[in-house]
Amino acid sequence: MRAGPMKHRLSAQRHQRVDDGMGGGAVAWVELRQVWAEITMPTGRTAVVANQITALVTAEIRCRPAADLVAGLRFVDGLTTYLIEAALLDNDRTMLRLLCSTVPNP
Fold first, then answer.
1. Domain-located, residue 1
2. Distance between CA atoms of 39 and 51, rounded to whole angstroms?
3. Rounded to two decimals, what is the model's pTM?
């Protein structure tokens, strides 16, 4: 994979428990690392969820293979948040395709 198309700098985040310093804790999104990636094929549709019309956007994010990028993590790109639904490695093991959906209220 050429580096040219990978022009988006994304923050990969994981949902985990964070200590609050007083013996308790909270569950929050913690940044794992920054990833250079290419966001392709964004598509949109509307769906009725809880009697409300909700816009759902899906996208494919391509990046270099990494064992820590799995389903359940999320990417933050400025104001847009993508939830990783599936991680697919190509046959040559040179590119990781991440099928994602946008998160309406991150």
1. no
2. 31
3. 0.79
